[in-house]
Amino acid sequence: IMKNPVPQAASLLLEKLLLLVHVRPLPEGSGSGSGGEPPPAPGYYDTSCFKRGDLLEVPRTLFIHFGIYLGENRVAHLMPDILPAFTGDRRQIEQVVTNKRLILGVITKTASIRVDTVEDFAYGGSILVNHMDRLFQDQVLGSEEAARRAEKLVGATAYSLLWNNCEHFVTYCRYGAPVSFQTDKFCETVKMIIRDQRSVLASALVGLASIVCLGLAPCTTLPTILIPFFLWMAG
């Protein structure tokens, strides 16, 4: 029995759309040895208010990046990265991920859960602490448990915009369930767009059928216009 290719094709299309909306490359010059402004100097952020196991969020223009604070100015976070697929040299992998490494990691679905300084993790963005706790309420694990889960997962991993991104990583560590609210929200938006497109297509087809069946006489003009219009409103 042949599998229906439509769901697979839809999933691939959705991931490509997510790539355009969900991924915002690091600023040029973020990689070691490249031009541009250097990352913020150590001490740029006041880490005295962070506790081991805290969930950190950095809002970006089109998405939010997440990490787990490990203490001593260290953050574990999941980053798309092509480099672990080619080398095991930790010195190279631990360098700040460049735009090219990030984008190729998304395309090839490879990533690493890495530990960086708060400055490299946030890269100048504002940081929210445990902002997601309100969504999970009684599901919050102990801070030490969250940190240990994050440390245990450090290393190369598969990457998926839909099923295994930085938000899945932190929600698993702090709440015990890998979920991604921003991905779910984007999927709902795509579904709405698809439904609207289907409504428009159905309206156009009914309109053409009305013209073919009823002709272009003045007495048929009104229903020819109204039928597609009400179908579009219902969609």
TrEMBL record:
GO process annotations (BP): retinol metabolic process; visual perception; vitamin A metabolic process
InterPro entries in alphabetical order: LRAT, LRAT_dom
Alphabetical keyword list: Acyltransferase, Cytoplasm, Endoplasmic reticulum, Endosome, Lipid metabolism, Membrane, Sensory transduction, Signal, Transferase, Transmembrane, Transmembrane helix, Vision
Entry GO MF terms: phosphatidylcholine-retinol O-acyltransferase activity
Record's signal peptide: 1-25
Stated role: Transfers the acyl group from the sn-1 position of phosphatidylcholine to all-trans retinol, producing all-trans retinyl esters. Retinyl esters are storage forms of vitamin A. LRAT plays a critical role in vision. It provides the all-trans retinyl ester substrates for the isomerohydrolase which processes the esters into 11-cis-retinol in the retinal pigment epithelium; due to a membrane-associated alcohol dehydrogenase, 11 cis-retinol is oxidized and converted into 11-cis-retinaldehyde which is the chromophore for rhodopsin and the cone photopigments.
This protein's name: Lecithin retinol acyltransferase
Organism, scientific name: Ardeotis kori
